[in-house]
Structure formats: structure tokens, C-alpha cells
Write the C-alpha cells for this entry.
Amino acid sequence: MADCVLNYTADRDIEFTKDDIWNDSYFNSSVKAIFNKPDAKNDTTRQEYDKFTSQPLRTLAYSGVLMMRKEGNKNLYRISNKPILEFIAMKERNAYLFLYRYLIKVLSDSNELR
């Protein structure tokens, strides 16, 4: 998802929605190639792709990598920490390291990690 956000924004300081990412041709080709998923434009896969895009975007927002604001019933995102987003997008191992540290922090802050 980090790679798709970077590609979609292409060094522009713009807001975007999950649907903007979802409808981007780079997202569609990446998801099919990397995850062997069906075409993102297929109406029968709408619910699956809704979760597939919104959950990582929200995680990036909750972690401070993206900013998120509501407008009506839509979440609008903007990059707030590009170096971290680039680190995550660089390779799968980096995404794993980021997620691992983020989850440790969240669990620790909520006293769930003993």
C-alpha cells in the first residue's frame, strides 16, 4: 500500500481517498502481480478490495505516516511522514519491521504487552 500511495501522489502534496488508490492502474497491476488477486475493477471483488485498501491506509494514518480527516463519509489522506512511507515501500522486510514496531508500541501503550 505504501508503494501505491507514493506512486499515486508522485511527489505531489495532495489528498487522496482509498478509492483514488483503488482506481489507480498502478494499484491494480501491482495487486494482481504481487498478491495474485483478481482485477480491482471487478464489481464482485468490491468488498474484498474495500478492506484491502482501507485497513492499511488507516494503520498508516493511526501511526502518523499519513494524516487522515473526515469529509462527509469519506476519509481523506495526505502523506505526513514521507521518509517512513518510503522506507515501508522499499521492500517487504521494511514493511514487516515497521508493522512489528508499531504493534509493539500500541500494545505497550495500552498495557497489553507484559
About this structure: The CA atoms of residues 4 and 27 lie 6 Å apart. The two ends are 31 Å apart (CA to CA).
